[in-house]
C-alpha cells in the first residue's frame, strides 16, 4: 500500500514484511534456478501452485460480497502467466472493464463529449506459478474517438488513495483463506539483486522488477490503450 513512515505499528509491519519477502525470495529461487527472467521452471507442484478457475471465480464472488462491489475475472495466457480480478472501487456497472473484456455493449449513457468516463479499480493479480497475489490501484478511462472509444488503463505501484485503504485491508484479509500470500506491491517493484534481465531487455527498457518475475512481463505502471466499438 502507500507509505507508512509515521505508522505506530511500523515495527510489527516491518516484521511481517520481512517474513513476506523471505517467502518471495524462496519462490524466486525455486522458479528461476538460473536467476534469469524468461527462464522460469515449472512449479514442483503445479496443482497447488496454480489457482483453478473455480477457486478464482469463488474468490471474485467473495470479494464482490464483502466489498459490496462488482468484480470481473480476466485470465492471463502463456505470455502473461497470471490472472486478474478487477474490483470496481469507483464507478458503476455496466462499466468499462465489462465493455473491454467481457463483450458488454457500450452503455447509451456514456457521454459523447470530451469528458468521457473515468473509473477506479483494485486490480488483484494472482500468479499462475505460485500462490502469490498483489493488489494495484488502477484508473481506467474511456473517451469517444469518432465511432470508437479509446480505453486507457493506468496502474499505480500499489494502493495510495486514502478512501480506498479500509477496503484494501478487507480485501487483503480474504486472500489467506484461498491459500494466497499477499505481497505489498511496493516491496516487489524493484529489481531483485543477483538476477539477470535476460530477454526482458529486448522487450522493454531497463531491468525487470520482482513483480515481472512473479506475474506479468510489462512494467508495473505501464499504461495500456485499446479501442472498442
Topology of helices and strands:
Blueprint: H1 10-31, H2 46-49, H3 53-67, E1 71-77, E2 80-90, H4 96-101, E3 117-127, E4 132-145, E5 148-155, H5 162-174, E6 181-182, H6 200-203, H7 210-214, E7 224-228
Helix pairs in contact: 3-5
Features:
7 helices; disordered N terminus; 7 strands; about 25% strand; about 230 residues; 7-stranded mixed beta sheet; alpha+beta; about 30% helix
How would you summarize what this structure contains?
The chain has about 230 residues and is α+β, with helices and mostly antiparallel strands.
Give a quick account of the main beta sheet: strands, pairing sense, barrel closure. Answer: 7 strands, mixed
Strand content: 25-35%
Please count the beta strands (DSSP E, at least 2 residues each). 7
- Quick one: overall form? globular
How many separate domains? 1
Supply the number of helical segments: 7
Distance between the termini: 35 Å
User: Would you list the SSEs in sequence order as H and E?
Assistant: HHHEEHEEEHEHHE
Radius of gyration: 18 Å
Report the oligomer: single chain
**Could you say which structural class the secondary elements and strand pairing correspond to?**
alpha+beta
Spans of at least 5 consecutive residues with low confidence: 1-12
Amino acid at each position: 500500500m502507500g507509505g507508512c513512515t509515521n505508522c505506530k505499528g511500523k515495527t510489527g509491519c516491518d516484521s511481517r514484511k520481512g517474513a513476506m519477502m523471505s517467502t518471495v525470495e524462496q519462490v524466486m529461487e525455486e522458479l528461476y534456478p538460473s536467476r534469469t527472467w524468461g527462464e522460469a521452471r515449472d512449479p514442483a507442484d503445479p496443482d497447488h501452485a496454480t489457482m483453478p478457475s473455480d477457486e478464482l471465480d469463488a474468490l471474485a464472488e467473495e470479494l464482490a460480497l464483502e466489498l459490496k462491489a462488482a468484480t470481473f475475472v480476466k485470465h492471463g495466457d502463456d505470455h502473461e502467466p497470471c490472472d486478474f480480478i478487477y474490483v470496481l472501487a469507483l464507478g458503476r456497472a455496466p462499466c468499462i472493464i465489462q465493455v473491454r473484456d467481457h463483450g458488454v455493449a457500450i452503455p447509451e449513457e456514456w457521454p459523447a463529449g470530451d469528458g468521457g468516463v473515468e473509473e477506479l479499480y483494485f486490480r488483484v493479480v494472482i500468479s499462475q506459478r505460485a500462490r502469490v497475489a498483489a493488489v494495484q490501484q488502477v484508473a481506467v478511462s474511456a473517451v469517444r474517438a469518432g465511432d470508437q472509444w479509446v480505453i486507457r488503463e493506468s496502474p499505480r505501484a500499489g494502493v495510495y488513495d486514502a478512501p480506498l485503504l479500509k477496503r484494501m485491508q478487507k480485501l487483503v484479509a480474504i486472500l489467506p483463506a484461498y491459500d494466497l500470500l499477499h505481497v505489498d506491491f511496493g516491496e516487489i517493484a524493484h529489481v531483485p539483486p543477483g538476477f539477470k534481465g535476460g530477454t526482458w531487455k529486448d522487450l522493454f527498457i531497463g531491468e525487470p522488477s520482482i513483480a515481472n518475475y512473479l506475474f506479468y512481463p510489462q512494467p508495473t505502471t505501464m499504461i495500456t490503450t485499446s479501442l472498442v466499438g
